[in-house]
Design goal:
This protein is α+β, with helices and mostly antiparallel strands. About 30% of the residues lie in helices and about 20% in strands. It has one domain.
């Protein structure tokens, strides 16, 4: 009888010990996993299969996948405009160069007082900083950067990945803040960009869709904005782009009705300014509707 009680006590004690050790190990594992996940950044974009975290946007019928992405210093800290060699692409994979982050203090310091002006109505946390690849004028691969609204960040990554896949030419892609937030100077340098808290060009005094980070200007020097002012005089922005106002001519970077850029943006729910009824904004793609 005593032996049975002893065996029972040992069994119960062993079970309690095992339970305690299992609980402690589980807690440690969860804390370790949480720590690792806190060191990672969420990346959303094309090319990753993860049905558990997939999101569907009914308005476009396009599925976007979200996965955890471990930071890679040799990729993440490349400055916009850096040429990426084929050996690096082969080593890291193209997907590694397409990602989004929240607006860091370093990036916001570049924006503050420029694209992010006093009275800006969109919170900093609603914006995202994107890194992407694009095909430059020499046919090489370059690092681009862009700030946009978080609501469209996945779509923007998908659009520019598609353009890169087809070697669509883009001359430059840096933040408009490199031009002190001057939209016309950025356009004149043929810089592709998105967020800029400003009013719309032309006669309108309303905020531009760029002010909410939901409009993108692509190769703007060669795809100008044409409008009629209050005096009935036709205007062009940038003014130096008048030679590209005649859309019957052939020249580099021209966006047309059948252009891959226009078709790709439309597939992802953007509206092309070249289809505006009265004015024409050939560089402009706004999400969801005209803006």
């Amino acid at each position: 009888m005593k032996n049975k009680k002893l065996l029972l006590s040992l069994a119960v004690g062993g079970l309690l010990s095992f339970t305690w050790m299992f609980t402690a190990f589980t807690a440690f594992a969860q804390e370790s996993t949480r720590t690792r996940e806190e060191e990672r950044r969420i990346w959303r974009g094309p090319g990753y299969a993860n049905d558990a975290s997939a999101q569907m946007y009914p308005e476009s019928g396009i599925k976007y996948n979200a996965v955890y992405r471990v930071p890679r210093p040799d990729v993440d800290y490349l400055k916009a405009g850096t040429r990426v060699e084929e050996s690096s692409l082969a080593k890291n994979g193209v997907d590694a160069y397409f990602f989004e982050n929240e607006i860091s203090d370093e990036v916001f310091a570049r924006m503050d007082g420029k694209s992010y002006r006093e009275g800006c109505t969109i919170p900093r946390e609603d914006l995202r900083y994107l890194k992407m690849l694009y095909c430059g004028p020499d046919g090489g691969t370059y690092v681009g950067e862009m700030v946009c609204n978080k609501e469209i960040s996945q779509k923007v990554l998908a659009v520019f990945r598609e353009l890169y896949n087809h070697a669509y030419p883009i001359e430059k892609m840096v933040l408009v803040d490199d031009y002190d937030g001057d939209n016309l100077q950025s356009a004149l340098d043929n810089n592709t960009s998105c967020f800029n808290f400003r009013k719309a060009e032309g006669t309108s005094q309303s905020l531009s869709f760029h002010a909410s980070g939901k409009a993108i200007d692509v190769n703007p020097k060669y795809n100008p904005y044409l409008w009629t002012d209050e005096a009935g005089i036709r205007q062009c922005g940038p003014e130096e782009s008048w030679e590209y106002a005649d859309r019957t001519k052939d020249f580099p970077y021209k966006i047309t009705e059948d252009d891959l850029c226009k078709k790709t943006f439309e597939e992802y729910g953007f509206f092309w300014g070249g289809n505006f009824v009265y004015d024409k904004d050939y560089m402009h793609f706004s999400f969801g509707k005209r803006g």
